[in-house]
What does this fold into?
Amino acid sequence: MEYRQFGYSGLRVPLIGLGGNTFGKHLQFGKFNDQAATTSIINRAEELGVNFIDTGDIYAAGESERYIGHAIAGKRSKFIIASKVGLPFGDGPNDTGLSRFHIMNSIEGSLTRLHTDYVDIYYAHRPDLCTPIEETLRAFDDLVRQGKVRYVGCSNYSGWQIAHANQIAKEHHYASFAVSQSPYNLIEREIESEIVPACSYYGMSIVAYWPLAQGVLAGRYRADEPISPASRAWQNPSKPLLRQLSRPNLRLAGHLAEWANRQGHLPSELAIAWLASKPYVCSILIGVTSIEQLSGNVQALGWTLTERQVIEIDEMVAGSKDSPT
It folds into this structure.
């Protein structure tokens, strides 16, 4: 397993990280892992060198954190655990957002469910425009000083929000964001215009989620075929997934799959190998429901794309944007 630097910090994380959004019943993803399956997957991940586990307080209404906490009991120090705060977790007026009140309450809940006294990374799950960024960063800084959090990051922030937060952190000597967790894949490359340059300027890395575009880049959907009733798009048609299922995207995914097959690889291996070719990506989060899926995704790291192959892929992607819908 290849390990990369976690932003400007001295921490090194595996290039493949384990997404915790399939641990516990998560309605958006349909399939999920019970406690036994979660433990088996995490044990196998450890054997493969995948010791980076990403979760969030809202994943399966806290079940994901509880399952992970149970699975790593007795070997906490072997894992790098990330969790998140900011999305609604309760019905009260202060059960959401990035206020000091909510952050301080939420970290205690996450630590309890994870059966640990610290998390390695704590993310702001999404921007909170109702709370001053100074308040959020001060609360995060206090958690770092208290030892309950080791590094902080942001998720789903725009480029200007990343720059603004880093400037505030610098002015006040607060712990600053080390990484941005962002959706990034061969179809969804918007972060390259502003988020990647902002992160590079401030020494931050990218933790990429949705590397397979929620199954589109794995070949689960085809432009000339109806959506299967057994698929996630049929059973749980979330807005982000439906956005990926446009005809141009499906045609591009088909071309990429054909190209990967000619190289002797699966389309999912291409999606992961392409992300691995980006030096600013420190980890690629995969959500799996079986040990077989986990092993297959890790195997993709055995394919190192050549410079010429990356150019060919970029030309295919650019050509798909120029073609009529």
